[in-house]
Amino acid sequence: MSKQTDAGLAIDTGRVFDLHCPPLTMGVGARRQLPEILRDFGERVFIVADPGITKQPIFQETHQQLLDSGFQTQIFSKLTPDPPIEDVLACAEVARAFEPAVFLGVGGGSTLDITKVAAILVGDSPAVEEMFGINLIPHPGIPTVLVPTTAGTGSEVTPIAVLSDETNQLKKGLVSPYLLANRALVDPEFCLTLPAAPTAYTGMDTLTHAIEAYTNRFAVPLIDALAIEAVRLVATFLEPAVHDGNDLNARYAMSRASVLGGLCLGPVNTAAVHALAYPLGGRFHVPHGVANSLLMPHVLRFNYPAVEERFQALAVAVETNDLVTFVETLSAKVGTDRSLREFKVQASDLPSMARDAMQVTRLLKNNPRTFSEEDALAIYEAAF
Ligand SMILES: [Fe+2]
Question: Which pTM does this prediction carry?
């Protein structure tokens, strides 16, 4: 049972999907509701936080508010960028000794992902390596409350966590309803101190989520509505947020885009851009949003013939004639128009990267145009 939608992509109208979203508290100053939210879970709060955010007054004031409200806390912030599995194991071990009632994650996407997985590992669970993949987590962990400080991966509303497997030099995903936060709290004021570069690349990640969901083989109309609004918000507000970090209006708009983009990931998810970005993160530590950004125009060009009318619908939403040019121009304006060679990738690395990317079948299956290893190599060569 399928039909052509007004945007042109054949959609299986019989497809049943699940959209899970944690209860979400959102708005400027929303952080003041944290004590009330945490009280539902207990007094002992294990906080996993970006090392950068722990130095910021906004974090310190929020933490003090918890102490003043009678909570007992422990902060874990020994986290490296692109955190390896060892960071999650260390986090879980420290947490186990603290015996938390609840985990509070405060940070960017990696920190929130670590919080989710550590909250599972702190109990009696299989090894992380055995839970990579879809629905391989056997039971829920300790409750989690997630507070993003970027906009963003949208991790605070997704049932997904991505970790770096250093042994195989690959980023790997875990997908499970048990990775969904018990509560999400989005206060755009946490993003005000985020420097321009991570503002740019996390914003481009949001854009990639929305575009890959909208042009996805498994697109569904309800999620289309979220995706197209996320694309529109990024088109309007990413540049202002990058150029003036204190622009609260732009920050709030980007936080909305990030949540909307995150909501696309559970029911629909991303596709080839994210699959090809995995080896860049795992082996060369290219920030996730930059990896997406530098690959996206090439993948979109490849996908264009398969979903031309969908691309046109997105182009109309952002008031341009050509979506690929729009993405390239935005990327150049915010400084994420990089090349692979800038990250010390050698031409001789490209074939093995293409081989690794083809392993990410859980995302490649979503791509609107079937992807071969030769196609992956051609994309890497174009981005080189
Ligand atoms: Fe992403």
Answer: 0.94
